[in-house]
Amino acid sequence: DIESQPFLEAIRQMAIELPGRCFFLHLTLAPEVMGGEMKTKPTQHSVRELRSIGLQPDALLVRCARELDPEVRRKVALFTNVPHEAVVCGVDVDDIHKIPLALAEQGLDEIVVRRLGLTCAAADLTWWHSIVEASAVADAEVRIAMVGKYVKLRDAYLSLHEALRHAGLKTFSRIDIRYVDCEEIEQHGTSALDTVDAILVPGGFGNRGIEG
Question: Which residues share a beta bridge with 59?
Fold first, then answer.
């Protein structure tokens, strides 16, 4: 993408001007094709493109549906000139809060610290563990109606959706968010809200007739 070239050139120059103070982590994808084979060609090609403009990743974070086989990781390391231990799997998870734990288990934080020559204590992930545990043992459920104009475009309310989920983790509650089109309420009344515990109306989206 031509728009990214100035940014890539900037970080290339930064690595030269600040030797030993830059760490390049390259995110790639290892798609799984029919038969369950994990394809590493996209990763190899992506790294080759970076190296052609003077950028060598210090570590690779490979998005994948399941853990890469040791042989596949060895192959990726060999053809990208990245140490074997620095080929980290970003396996799909059912909860985004599990990602830091998964990366720490593979030693990504230690790789970064060692590469930058930092002296620091081991990462304390107690808080992250508590979040994941809270999600697993939630013993209550709260049904919230999100009443808006753009409920068919869920990304329009993504920040609110995630804020509610985080609040649920804090209170050990499962948050069941039900999206309700404000025009449906205007036309058919408020029966769609009868079974919820709370109602949230996002501001600034022109929900005419709802705020009042």
Answer: 25
Q: How distant, in Å, are the alpha carbons of 143, 176, 178, 196 from that of 193?
A: 10, 13, 9, 6
33-47, 52-66, 150-164: range with highest mean pLDDT: 52-66
- Cβ-based neighbour number of residue 196 at 10 Å: 18
**Global pTM?**
0.75
Cα 147 versus chain centre, distance: 26
Question: What size, in residues, is the chain?
Answer: 212
- Inter-residue long-range contacts of 202-207, CB under 8 Å, 24+ positions, other chains counted: 202/146, 202/148, 202/157, 202/160, 205/148, 205/149, 205/150, 205/156, 206/149, 207/147, 207/148, 207/149, 207/182
Please tell me the distance from the alpha carbon of residue 56 to that of residue 23, in angstroms, as a whole number.
10
* Whole-number Cα distances in Å, 157 to 43, 100, 163, 169: 33, 25, 10, 19
**In the 8-state DSSP scheme, what is residue 154?**
G
Q: How far apart are CA 206 and CA 212, in angstroms?
A: 12
C-alpha distances out from residue 12 to 6, 27, 53, 77, 108, Å = 10, 17, 8, 21, 22
Asked if residue 65 has pLDDT above 50, the reply is yes
pLDDT score recorded for residue 29: 93
Q: Which residue has the tokens 């103070």?
A: 21
Q: What is the end-to-end Cα distance of the chain in Å, rounded?
A: 47
For 163, phi then psi, to 5°, come to -65, -40
